[in-house]
Amino acid sequence: DADVTQTPRNRITKTGKRIMLECSQTKGHDRMYWYRQDPGLGLRLIYYSFDVKDINKGEISDGYSVSRQAQAKFSLSLESAIPNQTALYFCATGEGGGVDTQYFGPGTRLTVL
Amino acid sequence: KNEVEQSPQNLTAQEGEFITINCSYSVGISALHWLQQHPGGGIVSLFMLSSGKKKHGRLIATINIQEKHSSLHITASHPRDSAVYICAVRFGGSEKLVFGKGTKLTVNP
Predict the structure, then answer these.
(1) What mean pLDDT, rounded, does chain B reach?
(2) I want to staple A88 with a disulfide (CB 3.0 to 4.6 A). Which of A30, A37, A72, B65 is the partner?
(3) Which chain B positions have a beta carbon within 8 Å of A109's beta carbon?
(4) For residue B8, is the peptide bond before it cis, meaning its omega torsion is within 30 degrees of 0?
């Protein structure tokens, strides 16, 4: 089984709908991240969490919210989806403590019509 | 501004060729990563460097701290190496990674 899983893998929705993307991990890492990837752009950080009670905004948090329900679960919500939120979304985990390596989920391809 | 630049953006090679992908960054860093994104989208970490050189199989990563530059080399390239290679850095004092835009490598048989 994959260490970092994301659901759904693909989603098509309409403008104005609320969408939740879920991420689960079995690596036991405290740190979790949500990124989006757009063609021609690097991965950009949306939100990150260093433990269950810690939530931090990344560089492009507007229009998004997150919930860290447990060490293993980190959800990303789009409160009212808009077409320019069409992108590939990745969840990642990391050990922290000076060990930078991040482990990525398989990605969720979201299309907002 | 903390920036990461990769070159080239696209690279096409014939099987067996030696490949070099470059990454430059703007200010001092704590660590630099090379990642590989497969055509299906999955991203895996290849190397983490803070100095010197690392080797894994046919992949070699080097970093020159003074010049703020890193290279990823692939020896004896193979079509299965076709992927997007991404450089990411953690700038000193930051807990977050900043990613380059990636280099798309295509290796033809």
Answers:
(1) 93
(2) A37
(3) 41
(4) yes
pLDDT tens-digit map of A47-84: 999 999 899 999 999 999 999 989 999 999 999 999 99
Chain B nearest C-alpha distance from A60 (Å): 13
| A45 with B96: Cβ contact below 8 A | yes
Query: Residue B22 above 80 pLDDT?
Result: yes
CB A34 within 8 A of CB A76: yes
Q: Which residues of chain A make contact with B98, given a CB cutoff of 8 A?
A: 42
Distance (Å, whole) CA B57 – CA B87: 19
- CB-CB neighbours of B108 under 10 Å: 11
**If contacts are CB pairs under 8 Å, which of residues 44-103 in chain A contact chain B?**
44-45, 48, 50, 58, 88, 90, 96, 100-103
Calculate mean pLDDT across residues A26-38: 94
What digits encode the pLDDT tens for the residues B75-97? 999 999 999 999 999 887 777 88
Q: Evaluate whether B5 touches B71 at the Cβ level (below 8 Å).
A: no
| DSSP assignment letter at B102 | -
Short-list A102, A104, A100, A94, CA closest to A37: A104
What pLDDT was estimated at residue B2? 66
- Amino acid in the structure at residue A53: K
